[in-house]
Amino acid sequence: MVSNYMPILISIASLLFAMYTYGAKHNTESTTEMTTVIVKLENIGKGVSDIKSEIASLKDDQKDDHDRLIKAETSLASAWKRINEISAKVEGSNV
Q1: CA distances from 26 to 10, 15, 30, 49 (A)
Q2: Is residue 61 pLDDT above 80, yes or no?
Q3: Distance CA 67, CA 61 (A)
Q4: Count of CB atoms within 10 A of residue 15's CB?
Q5: pLDDT for the residue 14
Q6: Angle at 71 between CA 53 and CA 67, to 5 degrees
Q7: Which pLDDT score, from 0 to 100, does residue 94 have?
């Protein structure tokens, strides 16, 4: 009687062992894939931080350029005012 159940028990044990082995292999692959994804996400995060830093630097440079442009325009307006005054004096003395 026991010999009738022995092949069934061996089959069940083999099936359970195969399922356990597949599960362990699958978990190892999942862990490897997850680690790879985490490393890639960290690299993306570093890239985003670098981009943010560069954008902040560009904003500062743009502000500095804007300030210099305002000073240059003010100086140019002052120079044209003096040129017009000198031109008016020259024209007044020639008359």
Answers
A1: 24, 16, 6, 34
A2: yes
A3: 10
A4: 10
A5: 80
A6: 15
A7: 67
Q: Is the dihedral of CA 40, 42, 45, 50 positive or negative?
A: negative
Give the list of residues 6+ apart from residue 36 with CB closer than 8 angstroms, or none.
Answer: none
Rounded Cα distance between 22 and 15, Å, is 11
Instruction: Report phi then psi at 94, rounded to 5.
Output: -80, -15
pLDDT tens-digit series, residues 11-49: 888 877 777 777 666 667 777 888 888 888 998 989 999
How many other CB atoms are there within 10 angstroms of residue 93's CB atom?
A: 7
Band (95; pLDDT cuts 50, 70, 90)? low
- How many CA atoms lie less than 13 Å away from 74 in the CB half-sphere? 6
Distance of CA 82 to the CA centre of its chain: 51
Distance CA 51, CA 84 (A): 49
